[in-house]
Design goal:
heterotrimer; A alpha+beta; B alpha+beta; C alpha+beta; A: Aminopeptidase; Elongation Factor Tu (Ef-tu), domain 3; 2 domains; 10-stranded mixed sheet; 10 helices; C: Aminopeptidase; 6-stranded antiparallel sheet; 9 helices; globular
Chain lengths: 341, 346, 333
């Protein structure tokens, strides 16, 4: 699975521009799927039959999109004004590299050298509209030959191993969820499962609206990443969770209160099979579950996540053992649902 | 399409969010000759449909909202009225502003303000929030309570009229100017064969909760939609980065809220017809009904097309005549043959 | 049913957002004798039906309360918490709280915290545990806690935590009890998770698909010293008929009908515009093709504090108005 994850993280798919990721996933999923379709929002919905039709219709969900940038204007000097797509802290973007459009034009998010910054200016982080992307074009025409307003850009950077058992890559959020789902698709499943690879999660869990409405699941498990703040100087109660301590089983986050019995099922399975697990020790964040839960007459939702440092930044860090444990636990969850919860 | 006449009529009517009745009535009447069927739905929106006659035709929904920002009365003090905003009111427009209270019959009021004679320079440099303001209706406390009860809505007391040779200026051009554009587009398409069932929606409550668009779309179940709204026109004091010049054409939305092949289609049609157009890149929420429309039921392919408008949410909203015409022409071109392109992409 | 007694029964039950089990059971027990059907749905809403052949009417009152959820247990045995709904740390400071399992504690700010800008991260629960081990034997991460203050009456007023929204649940139960024969097909829905974003009402409304809906909740008042004039109603002036709040502009037909019923049946009423805050009406009115939705509210001081204060005569007026709407001929409208 790690190989697959590396390939997925290397692809560019900013919210609204998921084509490359979707095409890759579609190709990998096709041989194993009983049905596969792309809907109006860009979601990829894959259905696979299993050992038995489920008593409760089950959906697994992971989003294909990542945060990034979008070009808003080209200046006379040939430099690009841009906006962030999804929630990005400006401070992690300054001086970083991006890759723009289908032609993968390299650019850098520029700002003036520190020597030219006054004491006063240094205290403030420049606003997004004073940042710019430099693609090395000398003027507007040269830039227009390469990009236009509306061109998307993903953070640059190849996935690499870090220390022992850690992975540094962009878009671990949420390619790890996609990787887990693709692995499961290859296996014999104990029950029928719908795999929803959603679009545009980062700009407001948008794909999940349509996916949940058409699939009409009764139980949905969202496979995600969640923010780890286990750094020196961060008080215990604000660290949330940490890579290497096992998959995160959430009871609540900033956008949804998860189904208590599904939470307990996941927790009990982890304990029974001695899979390390942790929970979020701070209420924050949100994911597709919030939208799925409130679709039609309601859906029972749970979330299983990998603890990842530096989410929504070009160099995120997560634990490969956590990723493997996420796969194991999801497999066990499907078996338990098949037996009857 | 006689924009002067249609907008003079539509903008003079009162229709703040939640109380669009009179505007919906006029809109329905204007729409009727251009469609097969038109009615007002449960939440007050006007829905018209022009069917193309083909089996299994895709449904295209074009939306422009009918509501305007306004006010609602919340209390009475010494005969003066306290009030709250309906939608995003610009409080700087309020001191000494004439309003129409929507009682039956309607009454006039003036937003009370202190004269310069008893204020300091400092006082006059500060802007006042709505909470500090009152409306003078020239009544006693008892009369005010009886005649203008809590919950009475109010609007700016003005209509729409030409400004110079090329501009139109008034209240509620956001978004009735675009409803007029929809009518114009329909006129340009009359007599032609379409390959989609065309739904025209004059929606309610866009300025507050997008109630009209959400509920109408749920009933119509469109495959494709375009939200036709306004975007910020340039003014001498606004940043050029965030505004669009008047008279340089409609603005095509690009970004996650705007399905790519639809934005591209709009750009191509503009080029084909040699129509001026501009592009607005939006990294998230487009600030229009396009946002809730896109996630109706199983999802809808969505376009956002905007008319540049100066002084948004004031009684002096201003648009360019040429932009009105060009937006209507672009929409008509967008509609022609869209069914085929949608099929080819399926 | 006596409003105050029902209130005490419901307050004795644990039911913050997402953990409404106990209060749901308490309400179900009171509703069952007067209902044709009682069921619980996926979100935890309690749906009580009185069958009829006429138009479908939904009355919604949320049964969840605001509260705290344990997120982290400190080495010294103190508990860090997240908020369930609109807990403002300054309003809850130094309040006794209790857990479902009976454990009691207090919610306090850190000594070094700036009280003027008090953040939830700077507060904690003290349950008297000497260390982490003892704390873990008493509670788990994910357990919920609610205000524990006594309710009392004073000069016709009731002072109690969780009038938001237990007083409305009591109003609906009392209305249901005295209803008699009704043509309309009535759904009394006690919703879950309103305080965290009107979540239960959304799915309940979709499932019931009503023609008319009335949300019953509390509303801000304008009658205390230094009030910011953020509400239009006063205690003791009757049932508050909602014109709008931050989540909804009520359908004019519902506003009109409620006013007409109140006038013709001599029920004291006032018009309500609540500028800060939304209610289940917000989630209900945009469901499916749209629902003609309004609100009947109980004016309430000090909302979300442990000492919420309302006038029992206003609650009684709401009971009468809800009954009147339930019995009203809604076909002709």
């Amino acid at each position: 699975m790690l190989d697959l994850l590396n390939q997925l993280c290397a692809l560019d798919g900013v919210s609204g521009d998921e084509d490359r990721v979707r095409a890759f996933i579609r190709k990998k999923a096709r041989p194993w799927a009983h049905s596969i379709r792309t809907d109006a929002l860009g979601n990829l919905i894959v259905f696979k039959r299993g050992g038995k039709p489920a008593e409760n219709k089950v959906m697994l969900c992971a989003h294909m999109d990542e945060v990034g940038v979008i070009v808003t204007k080209i200046t006379d000097e040939g430099v690009l004004k841009f906006d962030f797509v999804g929630g990005v802290d400006r401070r992690v973007a300054m001086g970083k590299s991006v890759v723009l459009g289908d032609n993968r034009v390299p650019g850098i998010i520029g700002l003036k050298a520190i020597h030219l910054v006054s004491r006063e200016e240094e205290k403030q982080v420049p606003k997004t509209d004073s940042l710019y992307i430099d693609i090395g074009a000398g003027n507007r025409e040269a830039a227009q030959a390469l990009v236009q307003p509306g061109t998307y850009g993903a953070f640059a950077g190849a996935p690499e191993a870090l220390g022992s058992n850690l992975l540094k890559a962009k878009a671990i959020d949420d390619r790890v969820g996609c990787a887990v789902m693709l692995e499961l698709l290859k296996e014999d499943l104990p029950l029928d499962v719908t795999f929803a690879f959603t679009a545009q999660e980062e700009v407001g869990t948008r794909g999940a609206f349509g996916a949940a409405f058409s699939v009409t699941p009764e139980i949905a498990l969202v496979l995600e990443t969640t923010t780890a703040a286990d750094l020196p100087g961060v008080e215990g109660h604000r660290r949330v969770c940490a890579p290497g301590k096992g998959p995160v089983i959430s009871y609540m986050d900033g956008a949804a209160i998860y189904d208590r019995s599904l939470f307990e099922t996941l927790r009990d399975l982890a304990e029974e099979y001695q899979i390390p697990w942790q929970t979020k020790e701070y209420i924050s964040g949100g994911n597709d579950a919030r939208t799925i839960q409130r679709t039609r007459a309601g859906v029972r939702v749970a979330a299983l996540s990998a603890a990842v440092r530096y989410l929504h930044a070009p160099a995120s860090v997560g634990s490969t053992t956590d990723f493997q444990d996420m796969l194991r636990l999801t497999r066990l969850f499907l078996e338990r649902v098949a037996e009857g919860l | 399409m006689n924009y002067d006449k249609v907008l003079a009529r539509l903008c003079a009517l009162p229709g703040p969010s939640g109380f669009e009745g009179p505007v919906a009535e006029a809109a329905e009447e204007l729409l009727r000759p251009l469609v097969d069927q038109v009615s007002v739905d449960r939440m007050g929106s006007v829905v018209g449909v022009r069917r193309c006659g083909r089996d299994n035709a895709k449904k295209l929904l074009l939306d422009a909202h009918l509501d305007e920002i306004g006010f609602v009365i919340t209390g009475h003090e010494e005969g003066f009225l306290r009030f709250a905003p309906l939608g995003g009111v610009d409080p700087r427009m309020l001191p000494d502003r004439e309003l129409t209270l929507l009682t039956d019959p309607p009454r006039m009021g003036v937003v009370a303000c202190l004269p310069p004679h008893i204020q300091t320079r400092e006082d006059m440099d500060k802007s006042q929030s709505i909470k500090e303001l009152y409306i003078d209706v020239g009544l006693s406390q008892e009369e005010a309570e009886r005649l203008i009860p809590v919950g009475t809505p109010a609007v700016y007391r003005t209509g729409c009229a030409p400004l110079g040779e090329e501009l139109l200026c008034g209240k509620a051009l956001d978004d009735r100017a675009c409803f007029a554009v929809l009518l114009d587009a329909l006129e340009r398409l009359s007599g032609e064969e379409l390959d989609v069932d065309l739904y025209i929606l004059g929606s309610t409550q866009e300025e507050t909760h997008s109630t009209g668009a959400i509920t109408a779309a749920y009933g119509i179940v469109p495959d494709l939609c375009a939200a036709v709204d306004v975007t910020h026109g340039d003014s001498p004091d606004a940043s050029k980065d965030k505004t669009f010049p008047l008279g340089k054409g409609p603005v095509i939305g690009v970004g996650p809220n705007c399905t790519r092949w639809l934005s591209t289609r709009l750009e191509h049609k503009a080029k084909e017809l040699d129509l001026p157009c501009q592009v607005e890149v939006m990294a998230g929420h487009s600030g229009t009904n396009g946002w809730p429309l896109q996630v109706s039921r199983e999802g809808v392919a969505t376009a956002v097309l905007s008319l540049p408008l100066r002084y948004m949410h004031t009684p002096i909203e201003t648009v360019h005549r040429r932009d009105l015409e060009d937006t209507a022409a672009l929409l008509a071109a967008f509609v022609r043959g869209i069914g085929k392109e949608a099929e080819d992409r399926a | 049913m006596e409003i105050f007694e029902v209130l005490q029964t419901l307050n004795a039950a644990h039911g913050p957002s997402g953990d409404e089990g106990d209060v749901r059971e308490a309400i179900a027990a009171l509703a069952r004798p007067w209902a044709d059907e009682v069921r619980t749905d996926t979100m935890g809403n309690l749906i009580v039906r009185r069958k009829g052949s006429g138009p479908r009417v939904l009355f919604a009152a949320h049964m969840d309360s605001i509260g705290f959820i344990v997120t982290h247990i400190e080495k010294e045995g103190f508990l860090r918490v997240g908020r369930l709904g609109g807990i403002a740390p300054k309003e809850a400071a130094y309040t006794p709280v209790c857990f479902k399992n009976g454990v009691r504690g207090v919610f306090v700010p850190e000594e070094k915290a700036d009280f003027a800008k008090l953040k939830l991260d700077e507060c904690y629960l003290d349950i008297g545990a000497v260390d982490e081990e003892e704390a873990r034997s008493m509670v788990r991460v994910g357990d919920t806690a609610v205000y524990q203050s006594p309710a009392f009456q004073n000069n016709g007023k009731v002072i109690s935590p969780y009038l938001d929204n237990r007083i409305s649940c009591a109003v609906l139960l009392a209305a249901l009890e005295g209803l008699g024969e009704c043509r309309n097909d009535l759904y009394f829905v006690f919703t879950a998770q309103e305080e965290v974003g009107l979540r239960g009402a959304r799915t309940a409304a979709w499932a019931v698909d009503p023609d008319w809906a009335v949300a019953v909740d509390v509303t801000d008042v304008d009658d205390t010293p230094g009030s910011e004039k953020s509400g239009t109603v006063r205690l003791g002036k009757g049932a508050a008929i909602k014109v709008m709040d931050s989540s909804v502009i009520c359908h004019p037909q519902v506003v009109w009908k409620l006013e007409e019923l109140a006038q013709s049946q001599d029920i004291p009423f006032q018009k309500d515009i609540m500028r800060g805050g939304g209610t289940d009406a917000g989630a209900i009115h945009t469901t499916r093709l749209g629902v003609r939705t309004g609100g009947v509210s109980i004016p309430c001081r000090y909302v979300h504090t442990p000492v919420e204060t309302a006038d029992l005569s206003d609650a009684e007026a709401c009971v009468r108005l809800v009954r009147a709407f339930a019995r009203a001929g809604l076909e002709e409208l």
